[in-house]
Amino acid sequence: MEKQLKVAALCNGTVIDHLPAEKLFTVVSILNLEQCSNQITIGNNLESKRLGTKGIIKISDRFFAEHEINKIALIAPNAKINIIRNYQVVEKHPLQLPDEVRDIIQCPNPNCITNHQAVATRFHVVDEKNALRLRCHYCEREVAREEVKIK
Ligand SMILES: [Zn+2]
Questions:
Q1: Rounded distance from Cα 140 to ligand 1 centre (Å)
Q2: What sign results for the dihedral spanned by CA atoms 10, 58, 61, 84?
Q3: Ligand 1: distance of its center to the CA of 125 in Å?
Q4: d(C-alpha 151, C-alpha 142), whole Å
Q5: CA-based nearest residue to 54, from 29, 32, 27
Q6: Residues 3-31: tens digit of each pLDDT
Q7: Is pLDDT above 70 for 53?
Q8: How remote is the CA of residue 30 from the centroid of ligand 1, in Å?
Q9: Cα(101) to centroid of ligand 1, in Å?
């Protein structure tokens, strides 16, 4: 029992908290955590006052790059990312998308140049409020956050 608790506490690493339960495995997949050999603790359908149920991912000795954080922000905008060093939360990342998201999202327009040539996708973040949309820089197709397909 005590051993389990020790595994759950993180010495150094990242905790992604307040994930909607139904988004947990999407986040696991977009961050390629299946390929990650670090110690990972995943909890899902945990009780949460705010969300009803929530998911949480704890990863030892792993710190995410900006483009990975942007992916999380797209899928689960209200998640909280805590950086843990020496058992202390040293940094809380507010999840905020930049004005432009590069090379993360797939353009849904089959005629878009990004689906035919080796061009990295570029999307402008149109509205950061309740109804966030992303507009393709090349073909101007708009995508709602719920429709986003991560590359
Ligand atoms: Zn496009």
A1: 6
A2: negative
A3: 14
A4: 16
A5: 27
A6: 444 445 789 999 999 999 999 999 999 99
A7: yes
A8: 21
A9: 13
pTM, two decimal places: 0.81
**Which chain residues have CB less than 5 Å from ligand 1, an ion?**
107, 109, 112, 136, 138-139, 141
DSSP E strands, 5-146? 13-20, 40-48, 52-60, 80-85, 88-93, 100-102, 122-125, 133-136, 142-144
CA of 105 to the centre of ligand 1 (A): 10
CA 72 – ligand 1 centroid, Å:
21
How many domains are contained in the chain?
2
- The whole domain housing 112 covers 100-147
Residues 85 and 115 reside in one and the same domain: no
